[in-house]
Design goal:
Helix content is 40%, strand content 14%. The chain is α/β, with parallel strands linked by helices. It has a single domain, classed as TIM Barrel, CATH 3.20.20. Bound molecules: 1-deoxynojirimycin. The site of 1-deoxynojirimycin has 12 residues, from loops.
């Protein structure tokens, strides 16, 4: 997610490092590429054909709107109706994986499994059929942030154990009805769900409980993922699909070589990536989380740690429930050790105690991250479930003209979005370093690009663009226009080779 980046614009330095490659920059034959979308961000049709309300429908309909310029996902890219066109656009790129997410409340309008909305189920069956028509592999995210509103209203959400059986029931319906799916991603970006949804409360459901409920959320997310994985392996032993969690993991570097900054970077990496991967791959929370959160909870006179303790049984149940390691990767963070906050402050920031700055175009960060993941969690198949670059010119314009209350006119022409050279540099740089990781024996099996087409970037509305296809959201026909980066991907799919010896240019970010 780009949320923490929005206020920062950086020009990074070009990477001068000589990339070591075997195979002359050619991706291994079995390596797969894909594009991604998610339901709330693209489908629209928020109340059509029996779909129930989700927490995102509800959140974005609030007055005043939590979103930039009051944008909502009511129509979005209209992909519920236009999925055939979208799937054909992906197929035209020549990619092998089509990743999308399922809206829980389209299948189960209230979230409960006592009533299945046939129209919703039929829709997703048709989506899968269409993907298969082009010989692509469907990759499905079971949960991409849109909990049914009714569950939330009944007190069943990512902070309660009660959610687990409902999530399992919903997942079972999908798995049973979509046997051709090749990859199941149970939960997308748990850190954002928990931290932004329950910690700082800037995304749905908008609950603010910094340093408390967000840890409970992490605990429930991990148990929910594990319960679905166990159900999948037990009840569908004949399926060959692979399942895992899709966790967002950025690379974190110390800002200076001082021991305290180095320690701070390691600590932050454990808070950000280790919080989800350590329990899944190694069992239990990372030691530093247990220690810091307990220490600061006791200092605040709480009787127990704000980080829930796993029982031995839970540790056993969660560990090992994956078929691959799934990461969403976008940028590198430069970290500086922070100052210890007063003991009465119980927040995530105080627990992690760092100050950071960002640099999106740091393509070697992915190499470092892949190496670290392999050292930390062992040799696994790694699927990069999201990789992409957001561009936002209207937002910058808004910052320059804060007095404007309504959507400012685009001051930069459409062509900048369509001639998205920066995105090509971004992909090229990151992919060259992924090739280097493969050369060094790290088992990366594929890259899924975020995303197929411009869509609703959550509370930033339609003002940040990640797509390979451009959409003019002012035009009611919502035409999809292929960008330069789409041409780059098409070429790459033909040659499967990158020239990584050229100088990689700096990129102007969002
Ligand atoms: C990750 C999220 O999965 C996706 O929904 C979001 O649009 C992208 N990051 C970009 O922020």
């Amino acid at each position: 997610m780009y949320f923490l980046l929005m206020f920062i614009m950086l020009f990074s330095t070009a990477s001068n490092k000589q990339i070591r490659l075997k195979n002359n920059g050619r991706f291994p034959d079995k390596f797969t590429f894909g594009t991604a979308t998610s339901a709330y961000q693209t489908e629209g049709a928020w109340n059509l054909d029996g779909k129930g309300e989700s927490i995102w429908d509800n959140f974005m309909h609030k007055v005043p709107s939590p979103a930039l310029y009051g944008d909502t996902g009511d129509i979005a890219c209209d992909s519920y109706r236009r999925y055939k066109e979208d799937i054909r656009n992906a197929a035209e790129l020549g990619v092998q994986i089509y990743k999308f997410s399922i809206a829980w409340s389209r299948i189960l309008p209230t979230g409960y499994a006592n009533f299945i909305n046939d129209k919703g189920l039929t829709h997703y069956k048709n989506v899968v059929k269409e993907i298969l028509k082009y010989n692509m592999t469907p990759a499905v995210t079971i949960y991409h942030w849109d909990l049914p509103q009714r569950l939330l209203e009944d007190g069943i959400d990512w902070t309660t154990n009660d959610l687990i059986p409902h999530f399992v029931n919903y997942s079972r319906i999908l798995i049973r009805n979509l046997p051709e799916v090749g990859y199941w991603i149970t939960i997308n970006e748990p850190k954002q769900i928990c931290r932004l949804g329950y910690g700082i409360g800037v995304i749905a459901p908008g609950i603010k409980s910094n340093g408390v409920l967000e840890y409970h959320c992490a605990y429930i997310v991990l148990k929910s993922h594990a319960a679905v994985y166990r159900m999948f392996k037990k009840e569908f032993p004949h399926y060959t699909a692979k399942m895992s969690l899709g966790s967002d993991c950025q690379w974190i570097r110390p800002l200076t070589s001082s021991p305290s900054d180095i320690e701070a970077a390691t600590r932050q990496l454990q808070f950000e990536c280790g919080m989800y991967f350590h329990p899944l791959f190694n069992g239990d929370w990372p030691e530093i989380l247990k220690q810091r959160i307990q220490e600061r909870s006791f200092a605040a006179n709480l009787s127990k740690s704000r980080l829930p303790e796993f029982t031995d049984e839970e540790i056993y149940d969660i560990k090992g429930n994956y078929d691959f390691l799934g990461i969403n990767h976008y940028y590198t963070i430069f970290t500086k050790n922070g100052i210890e906050s007063p003991p009465n402050i119980t927040s995530y920031e105080a627990d992690v105690r760092v100050t950071d700055s960002f640099d999106v175009y740091k393509p070697d960060g992915i190499y470092e991250l892949l190496k670290w993941l392999t050292e930390e969690y062992g040799y696994h198949e790694i699927l990069i479930t999201e990789l992409g670059l957001g561009q936002n010119f209207t937002y910058l314009n808004k910052i320059k003209t804060p007095h404007l209350q309504s959507k400012p006119p685009y001051v930069i022409t459409e062509n900048i979005y369509i001639n998205d050279i920066d995105r090509i540099y971004h992909f090229k740089g990151y992919m060259c370093y992924i090739l280097e990781a493969i050369t060094d024996g790290i088992n990366v099996i594929g890259i899924i690009i975020w995303n197929l087409m411009d869509d609703l970037e959550w509370i930033f509305g339609y003002n940040i663009r990640f797509g390979l296809y451009y959409i003019d959201f002012e035009d009611p026909k919502l035409p999809r226009i292929s960008k330069k980066s789409a041409e780059f991907i098409k070429d790459l799919m033909r040659t499967r080779t990158l020239n990584c010896t050229e100088t990689i240019q700096p990129v102007c970010l969002i």
